[in-house]
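Prompt: I keep going back and forth on a fold encoding question. Comparing notes only helps if you start from a blank page. Show me how you would write down a chain together with its backbone fold. Please set it down just below, with no commentary around it:
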Amino acid sequence: MARYFVGDIQGCVRQLETALTQVNFDPHHDELWCVGDIVGRGPDSLASLQLLQQLGPAARITLGNHDLNLLAVLTGIRPADPSDRLDCILALPESAQYDWIDWLIKQPLLQRDGQLVMTHAGVYPWWSIDAAEGYAREVETALQTAWQQQQLSEFLTNMYGNEPSCWTPTLRDMERWRFIINAFTRMRYCDEQGNLDLGVKTAPTAASVPHHLKPWFTLRPVSSTTIIFGHWAALMGATHRTDIIGLDTGCVWGEYLTLMQWPSGHRITVPGEQLV
């Protein structure tokens, strides 16, 4: 069995198909781990969803912020942004849209196999891996329960917001879940007191980054656990660490899609297209 990790797809299904062909990916024997942001801004978000769904158990996925946005759009709590290019999904019959909601709701915020962990944006520096896994499962259960009880719209409406910015175990209900979701799907920078800054998106080398902010991964101690994440296109995967690996290399922004074989670390890159 071969295991591969892919960075943010965001509707760039042609590049993903090319990369999988280059490694002779076989869903009967191989695994594809996807860091999330399957959809959004690229040319064919629907085909990206279909490809991963068709892989069945060979695909292991974590939800990204664009995937959660799709849920919000499909449930009617957010208008579709034309730049997200979700028209093909929104043109589906209501029953098909329902099926995609049901499929996405079942995807986790964190995937783990022993000392290997994958999330969309990373792992909050002040959480242990065991704690992070527990918080992820807590939110996944809350999200699935809201769907089953026909309260998903309410949950997603209350999910949005930047507060609270700092974690404390005493957070309860939606404030607690909002922070956990933000950490797993939107995090880039923190300060040393543990506050998330969800506004700054540029690379750490940019002069405009406030001095008190640090990339989240620089605040985590070196560990025997490997964390694989996406989300931060401006980073272009540069963490300068071997135990924390970034795979969003800006395919939808005209850079390239990265497929990494594990544990060798060998990477296949496929050029993207300037679409946004």
Observations:
- The chain has one domain: 3-271.
- DSSP finds eight helices and twelve strands in the chain.
